[in-house]
Amino acid sequence: MFINYFKLTSAIIYLFVIVHFTMTDAPDEFDKLYKQIRDGQISKDEAVPKLKAIADELTAYCKSKGAENIPNSEWVFPLKGYGAEAIGGTNGSGYITAGYDFFDGNRHGGHPAHDIFIHDRNQDCIDDYAGAPVDVLSMSGGVVVSLEKEWDSNSDLRGGKYVIIYDPFSNALFYYAHNNMVTVNIGDIVKPGEKIAEVGRSGLNAFKKRSPTHLHISFFAINDGDIKPDNIYRDLLNAKRN
Fold this sequence. Notes:
Blueprint: H1 2-24, H2 26-38, H3 44-64, E1 114-117, E2 135-137, E3 142-147, E4 161-167, E5 172-182, E6 189-190, E7 195-199, E8 214-223, E9 226-229, H4 233-238
Antiparallel strand pairs: 1-8, 2-7, 3-4, 3-6, 4-5, 5-7, 5-8, 8-9
């Protein structure tokens, strides 16, 4: 009886350690997997089951860190001092899903995103009126699960310096790209309106003179390990200004 009890206790402790280790590493696990997808190092068939497992771990991670499930009614416009008038296109027409697959990584087609432009005629990443960089704010609550803080003009990385945040309320990812500076780290818990970066011109096409300085923001819903873009234009229109 003693031996059985000892074995059972040992098994429970072992299981707790494995689960705890996995949960606390969830943001790093996502970052590694995302970069494999981004760089074409893993197939969709291989990536989907891994993403399904990591999504569950991310939910547990957020709970363990006290992250709140914040509804979209509390979301904040992602550029400080700006509002919906800065969104490119007409009535959200810049959002194009045709040819897009998340698992195509850096070689994807389409543009399932909204570009939000700042006042920067000389393209120095400084707001022409405020005379200062423009803060990128997290729209939602959640946890930082991937980012890139380094980029140079010889890189073909389209997003440049980016941040990805997992929102447990909507079980989705927010992708903020072309930043000049990233100010958060993987595993950080964020709330709506919290600074995560500064608007920049990093990325293969965003760096070019023909591209006005802007934030590229995408929203991706997670469903059983698959990831699909969703249009948050209405949410941007209704978001609180900061």
